[in-house]
Amino acid sequence: MSDASPILRINALTKTFDDFTALHGIDLDVAEGEFLAIVGPSGSGKTTLIRLLVGMDDPTDGAIWLRDQRIDVIPANRRPTCMVFQSLALFPHRTVGQNIEFPLKLRGVAAKARKDRALELLDLLRLPRDYYAKRIQQCSGGEKQRVALARALAFDPEILFFDEPLSALDYRLRKTLEKELKDLHRRTGKTFIYITHSLEEAMVMSDRIAIMRAGRFEQIAPAEEIYARPVSPFVAEFMGEVNFLPLRAGMVAGAALSSAAQAALAGQGGTLVLRPESLRLNPQAADLTLTGTVAAAYLLGSRMQYRIDSPAGELTVEVLREDAVAGGIGAPVTLGCDLAALHLIAEARDAAA
Ligand SMILES: Nc1ncnc2c1ncn2[C@@H]1O[C@H](COP(=O)(O)OP(=O)(O)O)[C@@H](O)[C@H]1O
Ligand SMILES: [Mg+2]
């Protein structure tokens, strides 16, 4: 994030439905031109937040600022800077051009200016200009998404909001559109706020990720930091495959620690987070060492993933194929990692359930 004042500021935002609190006084600053992903499991309050931001619902308490203007008190139709991207809301029987021009027509923009803008947006979204006259029904899934994006951009909003736009699409189309969205963000320089329950999607596209849990932000940071230094077992687990080792009084049951590791962890307790790719098989030397047996092996293209039964529980290890262990299921192995690969969370893992 830059030092400049934020384009969007959320201050102590609260939303309650009867006696249920969906958002617990959350704060957030979004920088101009940032791509922020908001990630969280179903029911964590993501859609509720977006609805407040675009004015589809009113907060119970707190404030939303767009630059110097407080916008939570302004009706949705007078917040021209905020658009929600909804692919399913296209008019299927109308043309691509009519769909893109729809918001401009609503606001009384003249026909010639509308068409010029629509053609410009077709260029921006890398759709051929002759799609202007094509019907939505004749477009592929990916083309429909691009048309919907063009329409969302038609009025030149300062912030684009997305609420899980790709979740219903098949894997390959999703992967393509993730990259296109990131590219579109770069080319337009606009601020994107993108909601998803897929952390993988968030990592591919965003500058920062805000992890939501039960109506609060649990961690807001760049993807690398969330991956390397999750603040809680909840965040660590959300980031994909991970191993947790309970640490009690500076010791890990079933593991041997080097003197450097003993010194670094002395007297501490909590949960050690260890990524599968940080564990090595049969290392010469390591700061933390465990022995175990291979319980399962999976080929992941250029890498192998192993499940290892160890005295510290079942662990997941990923190595390059050339570092794969000889011997199959049941083969004895030693696992090791460096001190730098161990990330300590003060919270015991059980508390996260
Ligand atoms: N209009 C509503 N009335 C009552 N509860 C609601 C309403 N909208 C959302 N909720 C509740 O608020 C919580 C968060 O919902 P939502 O923001 O849709 O989550 P997400 O988008 O992260 O899946 C859920 O428990 C949901 O049931
Ligand atoms: Mg939702």
From TrEMBL:
The GO annotation for biological process reads: quaternary ammonium group transport
Pfam families listed in its UniProt record: ABC_tran (PF00005), TOBE_2 (PF08402)
Question: What UniProt keywords are attached to this protein's entry?
Answer: ATP-binding, Nucleotide-binding, Transport
InterPro entries referenced in this protein's UniProt entry, alphabetically: AAA+_ATPase (IPR003593), ABC_SmlMolc_Importer (IPR050093), ABC_transporter-like_ATP-bd (IPR003439), ABC_transporter-like_CS (IPR017871), Mo/tungstate-bd_C_term_dom (IPR008995), P-loop_NTPase (IPR027417), Transp-assoc_OB_typ2 (IPR013611)
- Which PROSITE patterns does the record match to this protein? ABC_TRANSPORTER_1, ABC_TRANSPORTER_2
Record GO terms (molecular function): ATP binding; ATP hydrolysis activity; transmembrane transporter activity
- SUPFAM superfamilies associated with the record: MOP-like, P-loop containing nucleoside triphosphate hydrolases
Q: Which cellular component appears as one GO term in the record?
A: ATP-binding cassette (ABC) transporter complex
ABC transporter domain span: 8-239
Q: What is this protein called?
A: ABC transporter ATP-binding protein
